[in-house]
Design goal:
CATH class of the largest domain: Alpha Beta
Shape: globular
Order of helices and strands: EHEHHEEHEHEEHEHHHHHEE
CATH superfamily of the largest domain: NAD(P)-binding Rossmann-like Domain
CATH topology of the largest domain: Rossmann fold
Distance between the termini: 58 Å
Bound molecules: 1,4-dihydronicotinamide adenine dinucleotide
Largest sheet: 8 strands, mixed
Strand content: 5-15%
Length: about 300
Amino acid sequence: MTSEKIQRVGVIGAGIMGAGIAEVCARAHVDVLVFEQTRELAAAGRSRILRSLDRGVSSGKITEREREQAAWRLRFTSDLGDFADRQLVVEAVVEDEKVKSEIFTELDSVVTDPNAVLASNTSSIPIMKLGIATKSPERVIGMHFFNPVPVLPLVELVTTLKTSSTVSQRAEAFASDVLGKQVVRSADRSGFVVNALLVPYLLSAIRMVESGFATKEDIDKATVLGLAHPMGPLALTDLVGLDTVKSIADSMYEEFKEPLYSAPPLLLRMVEAGLVGKKAGAGFYEYAENGRASKK
Ligand code: NAI
């Protein structure tokens, strides 16, 4: 069976990642339907995307007209039933296996195209666990984007033992030809390539702060100036979200049982305190409304 070119995309969740994915799809001229749980969250998601499009205009990356057209291609719903005609759906909700599995079960019963790509943007949950929540695991795949999505060019593509080659080729063609992303493939192992390398590094930096080895400022300065990283590990943890880093670490620990993936107590306490990073205004650093770090 031949598959049509993907022109109708669904994005589930309009948090940091869902908003970014919806934005790049709308900028690539596809029709985008975004699911959020409530009207309020949908409104917050829409303004997140519009602010990012505005930044695109002020930095000269897109024109006013492109901004307007992208905004027109975005629609929001709180009913997954509206996703029946989608050819690709990218799920980008909270890093929680139960929540994601329930969404995949429902999505599978709603989306009609037998070759639809049902993708998860999970950072660490093995994709097969989401595949088995459906009756058509051949449609389920991992498409892992990076934050900020409009800026970072990578997508990790993760096929399972059940993903069909049609779905895998369709997902790869969309990421590379339509979105202009670079694709790497990873085995279906928790963390895939990038987080398997990154997360132990972030957790080590948190352990350094916790043990008084060095200050957070000096750890970040050391990696920026000594390793030429664009930002230090604690600023990066704030950008990713401490709650998300904790959930990723938990999934990787569950998969590999290696101490290097276990979340340190400081991370647990900060998540419990709601200090989850830039999206909440405070994490290792404090952030003004404009998202810039300010001194604690
Ligand atoms: P976020 O905290 O910004 O957004 C979470 C989203 O999940 C929101 O849209 C929220 O409404 C939704 N949500 C929460 N509970 C829900 C529920 N019970 N049912 C339905 N929706 C629910 O999180 P973020 O950072 O956008 O992460 C989303 C996914 O993307 C996660 O799987 C994460 O691992 C992955 N990811 C995150 C990256 C990052 O740098 N933050 C990078 C790459 C992937």
